[in-house]
Amino acid sequence: MSLTRLDVEKIAHLARLAISDQEMPAYVASLSSIVDFVDQLSKAGTGDVAPMAHPLAGQTQRLRPDAVTETDCREKYQANAPAVQAGLYVVPRVIE
Prior knowledge:
mainly alpha, 36% helix, flat, two-stranded antiparallel sheet
C-alpha cells in the first residue's frame, strides 16, 4: 500500500507539520516505504510462536517481591496542602 501525496498532506495536517512542496516527494517516498515494510511484516506467520518473558533463551526477568516498602505519609503531606477535603487535594477549577 503506497501513500499518495494527498495522504501525506492529510497526515501532515493532523500532525501539524508544515511540509514544503520541495520536501513532499521525499516524505511520500519515505512514508510509503515504511507502510510497505509494516505490511510485509504483518504477513509473517506468528501463530505458532509462544510468548516470551525474555528475548534470550534460558534467561528470566529478575523480579522484586511485591511488597510495600514505603510508609504511609499521606497525613503528613496533606498537612502542608492549602486545602484538603475527604482525603483529596482541593484545587482551583480550571475548566468551566
